[in-house]
Amino acid sequence: MEYTLIRSSRKTFGISVTEDGVVVRAPAWARPRDVDSFLMSKYDWIIRAREHIEERKRTVEGITPMTPEELAELIARAKPVFSRRAAHFAPIVGVDYRSVTVRAQRTRWGSCSAKGALSFNCLLMLAPPEVLDSVVLHELCHRKALDHSEKFYREFTRVCPDYKAHRQWLKENGLDLIARLPRNG
Q: For residue 100, what are the CA distances in angstroms to 133, 169, 181?
C-alpha cells in the first residue's frame, strides 16, 4: 500500500485517509517495520475510509456549486449572523473576543486565535442553526483553552451538551456543503 510518511517529534502514530491518499504520521524514532506494522493494523479501517471517500465523491457529483456572486452574497449575509451569535454566546461561556471574520473554506468550520480573533466558514449558514451555534460555542470555548484538552471539552460540554450530534451532522453532511463552493474558488 502506498502512503506518505511524515516523521516528527510526536509520541504516537497517526493516520489519515484523504482523496489524495494515505498519510502516516510517525515518531522520529519509529523504525520502518514499526510503521509497516502500524499500517497493517489499520488496513481494514483504511479500506473502509477509502470506500467512504469514493461514496461521498459520487454523492457530491450531483451538487451544483454556487456562483461567485452567490458565494459573495452568502458571506455578506453570514457576517452579521456570526457576529450576533458570538455576542450572544460569549457571556454564557464567560469570555470575550476581539473580532469575527467569515470566509469560504474547504477545510475548517471555524478557528480562534490566541488573541481572540474568531473566524467562521460561511457554509455553516447552510447547516441547521444548532450546528452553526455549536461551532460558534466551540470557538468561544477556545478562549478558555486553545487546545482540545480535557479542560476544553469540559467547558464545551457544559455550554453545548449535544455537541457530538452536531459534530456528527458535519461529518455526514460537510462534504455536501463544501461541494457548493465554486470549483475554481
A: 14, 24, 21
